[in-house]
Amino acid sequence: MEVGKIYSKDEANQLYGAVMQSKGISSSELTAVLSRTKNYLMFKIINNDLVILGDYRAVLYPEGYKVDDKEVFAVYSTGKIKELLDTGKAATTTIEQRKDVISINNGEQTMEISNWCPPFCNGH
């Protein structure tokens, strides 16, 4: 199942509100992280650090980071993240904490409609 929907940056701001905090990662580095998991990436900003998990909540970025099992992450399908990178074409991708959601921005494209893990971790 594909998780994520891509909007224009303006649409995302109207639907989900202003960005309260953001962390950038080079799109090439995110592509490298993507190559280390099959189905999903999970994102969260913790203590001003961007943390990315892969399938089965394996910590992919930064390496060696410890995550509590109860920590809630925004889950996106790897296919939708690749689509965002392909359509946005920007050198930097930004993970954005908004009031109720975590969105991902690349160029003029912003993705939302994630799942949350937990509780939606089955097969992730």
Describe this structure in words.
- This protein has 124 residues and is an alpha+beta fold.
- It has one domain (5-117): DNA Polymerase III, Chain A, domain 2, CATH 3.10.150.
- Helices cover 22% and strands 39% of the residues.
- The protein has helices at residues 9-16, 27-34, 78-88; strands at 5-8, 21-26, 40-46, 49-53, 59-61, 73-77, 92-97, 102-106, 109-112, 115-117.
- Strands 1-9-8-7-2 form a five-stranded antiparallel sheet.
- The radius of gyration is 13 Å and the shape is globular.
- The mean pLDDT is 93.
Which labels suit this protein?
single chain; 10 strands; 124 residues; alpha+beta; DNA Polymerase III, Chain A, domain 2
Round the mean pLDDT to the nearest integer and report it: 93
For the sheet with most strands, the description reads: 5 strands, antiparallel
State Rg.
Answer: 13 Å
In sequence order, what are the helices and strands, one letter per element?
Answer: EHEHEEEEHEEEE
Going by helix content, strand content and strand pairing, the class is alpha+beta
Summarize the entry for a quick read:
This protein has helices at 9-16, 27-34, 78-88, and strands at residues 5-8, 21-26, 40-46, 49-53, 59-61, 73-77, 92-97, 102-106, 109-112, 115-117.
Task: Itemize the secondary structure elements and their pairings.
Layout: E1 5-8, H1 9-16, E2 21-26, H2 27-34, E3 40-46, E4 49-53, E5 59-61, E6 73-77, H3 78-88, E7 92-97, E8 102-106, E9 109-112, E10 115-117
Antiparallel strand pairs: 1-9, 2-7, 3-4, 3-6, 4-5, 6-10, 7-8, 8-9
